[in-house]
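Fold this: Transketolase-like pyrimidine-binding domain-containing protein
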Amino acid sequence: MPEDDIIWDVSHQCYPHKILTGRRDKMSGLRQLGGISGFCKRKESEYDSFGAGHSSTSISAAQGMSVAKSLLNKRKNNCIAVIGDGAITGGMAYEAMNNAGYLRSRMIVVLNDNGQVSLPTGTQTAGGVVPASQLSAYTSNLLVSKPFQDFRDFAKNVNRLFPENVQDINKRLDEYARGMVSGGTLFEELGFYYVGPVDGHDLENLVPILEKLRDSDSTKPVLLHLKTTKGYGYPPAEQASDKMHGVAKFDLATGVQVKGKSIAPSLTSIFANSLIDAATEDRSVVGITAAMPGGTGMDIFGRRFPKRTYDVGIAEQHAVTFAAGMACEGLKPFCCIYSTFLQRGYDQVVHDVATQNLPVRLILDRAGVVGNDGPTHHGCYDLAYLGCIPNLTIMAPADEIDLKNMVMTCAAFDDGPTVLRYPRGTGYGAEKLQKLFGFKLENGEIPAKGKEVKNYCTSHCRFRLSLCSATNIFLSAFPLQ
């Protein structure tokens, strides 16, 4: 049985954890049919204390476990949340820290700070090419000076010798000194005991710190801040951390990945280039992404229109309402989010966009089944959870030509919010258009009629759906009916 509960946020970092917890012989089947998951999964191992895939959930889960152990008088083992500087930009992480500090929940948060908030890092946006996080800027400026840390420890020991009223004065002086030198004490103001920054690769120094935190009788939460380098110790990964974030099979010596050749461009790149065409014609077109510029094509758009590209970090709720505010003032925001991640901004779609009938363009990449990322990332629910919302116009292309035209349709349509969803992968090599045109939204196309056709429509929501990845399969099977 595990002695401590370790909750890995997102859980991209869980591969070593899986190797160390009895799954080394199963790693060859990682992310494959019948193999083990690429993320933590409770039913896979008792050492996977909490499942993950989406970000910013670990601190809430760890706090819930900590409170439950206390109420049920369970063994006082540690609840440890391991979270990156990208995931901690998510609002849910701050909600959890605020509550944990308020309740003085006994728990440890390990902040893995490697300077990579968005994928890829370095996308040209309206905020520059730095990570889309003021927290990253804050933690980068935190004091690393060992002499100051030693002085602070010395001062605390001396402080205990003074009467209580003098201790209060010294405590305020210590806070003032830290505020002057390190630019503030954000985590301590949230009620955490802050330790760091610590070199996350210096095991001789790190292990004793972890042991002290494990054995501490502290009655309030602790945040251990580690500075790390992504891919540390493997040169190909250090030099191309974005490309090595999620990999296919690759050559261990060179890091070169083996990928199948495609005769057609990806739908993501087709969307991005179509949006560039629309933005060239219309200066009010802007793009928004929630820390996934590479996955949504906003990195391509950003190279052409950096001042009109906005990476808000892992903040889907904010992204949707940010787009709604833009639409109020006459901009044409294309809010580009994976289908599975828009689930996190659902209330904003309902309350801030659809209820006010604002012309926000919601672009859902990775609609449908996404492959080896598994159930946490499949975009299977958007038609159900969006189809019931008033005022939305929902579109899905049959091929590349449809996709290009639907982008132009979204750009031209100002009478309400639109949704454009398309799957991961490439198109079918459809011929290039000489000239783009928009669709009449009330009219759909019926490529073939079967024995029975049911037409579904409501007065609240309009559909033009072809379901790109399935259309050609359906048509090829049509003669078999």
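The two ends are 55 Å apart (CA to CA). The chain has two domains: 5-142+183-227, 267-480.
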